[in-house]
């Protein structure tokens, strides 16, 4: 049985990727940008690196969870897409689309089997152009970083607004 952490009040934003592989660094770079942005204290930020089972308790404890990653979207490099709820589940359950999705899929499936799948969950993904050894993402993914940050912030703001509406009803 996986140990449970107390449910977090703050949503978990998990940046996935290897900072040594060019565009694969998108997730950690977004987490870094969010940490430096106003409102950083309203979320739990985690650089998940190339992911591992040690992250399962954090995902299970979260009531809201956003993964940020470079993923194969069959689109132009730098294209950003958001997959929320069941759309995230379908995206992760299809063919392998990133170096981390199989492990992320496994974590999400394990959380679901244990009855602890975060009710609010999303994948904010960017199409990489190059994931070869490099300390810098390509210009297309670099240009997409502010969009990735904005999409995460917009999701969190919408979820908070929905919570506020429920509380006032």
Summarize the structure.
This protein is an alpha/beta fold and 169 residues long.
List the helices and strands and how they pair.
Elements (H helix, E strand, L loop, with lengths): L11 E5 L9 H11 L7 E6 L6 H6 L2 E7 L9 E5 L1 H8 L7 H13 L6 E7 L12 H30 L1
Parallel strand pairs: 1-2, 1-3, 3-5
Antiparallel strand pairs: 4-5
Helix pairs in contact: 1-5
Task: Describe the overall structure.
- This protein is α/β, with parallel strands linked by helices.
- The chain has a single domain, classed as HybD-like (Rossmann fold, 3-Layer(aba) Sandwich).
- The chain has 5 helices and 5 strands.
- It has helices at residues 26-36, 56-61, 86-93, 101-113, 139-168, and strands at residues 12-16, 44-49, 64-70, 80-84, 120-126.
- The chain has a 5-stranded mixed β-sheet.
- Helix 1 (26-36) packs across helix 5.
- The longest helix has 30 residues, at 139-168.
- It is globular and about 50 Å long.
- 38% of the residues are buried.
- Mean pLDDT is 87; it is low at 1-7.
